[in-house]
Design goal:
Oligomer: single chain
Number of helices: 13
Shape: globular
Radius of gyration: 19 Å
Structural class: mainly alpha
Largest sheet: none
Strand content: under 5%
Number of strands: 0
Length: 286
């Protein structure tokens, strides 16, 4: 893939609101939507890599999962060790016990299920668990257990139906989330089937569901609109917003718009995202 600095910049646009939200800054009541931006980025990058390797005839599941391990585990192990030591020194026995349980769940990539079974994302004590942020990592890894296999099957038996199949799966996941939000809001927030559509939106950008444009003015308009959608969600959503559901469309489509519109000549928005300090922050976000 051709490196795009603006996507690393988009990571910064995702991580800053999340950190600010958890720091309790009142101005960013919807900062948690940064996670949804990360989902779109991840879906875009992974789909681009897998489909290009499948189409070239040299995709390997073993290599794919090896890359995931090398990408994830060094940082993950560091975080787990640090939290375990700090928790031993600072936490009460009950809180430390929960930290240990969440560490095991994180290692097995089921921390989203663990936190779902505890309580609401926005309530203590779960919101004070040092490993709470790993729920989104679990979503991604669960998604990547079946997604490469699906793309391989599609390439082998239904190559011409790649786009329709991904569209259908995306819509099914989104509709499931809409339906369950009123019935099981916590499950809708944490569990993969109601979140996978966000990664699939990134995948649809990767396979050019909507062909990219060479019109710089049009791309600037789309990028500006995408930035505005993300900004509205960050600054106007709160913990009381019914989320994800339809409310997740703003950050998800905003991120997709920024990625889609940046595939050609960089606009002013993409140059801003590609600035060195922003890119450095995005690269450090993991």
């Amino acid at each position: 893939m051709t490196y795009r600095a603006d996507i690393d910049g988009l990571r910064a646009l995702a991580v800053v609101p999340v950190v600010a939200f958890h720091a309790g800054l009142p101005a960013v009541g919807g900062g948690y939507v940064g996670v949804d931006i990360f989902f779109v980025i991840s879906g875009y990058l992974i789909t681009s890599i897998i489909t290009s390797e499948i189409d070239a005839g040299h995709f390997s599941l073993a290599t794919f999962y090896q890359r995931r391990v090398r990408r994830i585990f060094p940082a993950l192990i560091t975080v787990l060790i640090f939290c375990s030591i700090a928790g031993y020194l600072l936490m009460t026995p009950d809180d430390y016990k929960m930290l240990g349980q969440s560490a095991v769940a994180t290692t097995l990539f089921v921390s989203n299920i663990f936190f779902w079974r505890q309580t609401n994302y926005f309530d203590a004590p779960v919101s004070e668990n040092p490993l709470l942020h790993t729920w989104s990592l679990a979503i991604e890894e669960q998604f990547y257990l079946f997604y490469p296999l699906l793309l391989m099957l599609v390439a082998r038996y239904w190559r011409n139906l790649r786009k329709p199949i991904i569209v259908i799966l995306c819509l099914l996941s989104f509709v499931l989330g809409l339906w369950l939000l009123a019935l099981k809001p916590s499950a809708t927030f944490y569990l993969g089937p109601t979140r996978f559509w966000e990664l699939l939106v990134g995948g649809l950008v990767a396979i050019s569901l909507i062909p990219t444009s060479a019109n710089k003015k049009a791309n600037l308009l789309v990028a500006s609109f995408g930035l505005a959608m993300i900004g509205y969600a960050v600054f106007y959503y709160t913990a009381a917003t019914r989320f994800p559901g339809a409310a997740a469309l703003l950050p998800v489509l905003g991120a997709a718009a920024l990625i889609w519109s940046g595939s050609g000549e960089a606009t002013a928005v993409h140059r801003l995202l590609g600035a060195r300090p922003v890119v450095a922050l995005g690269k450090a976000s993991y």
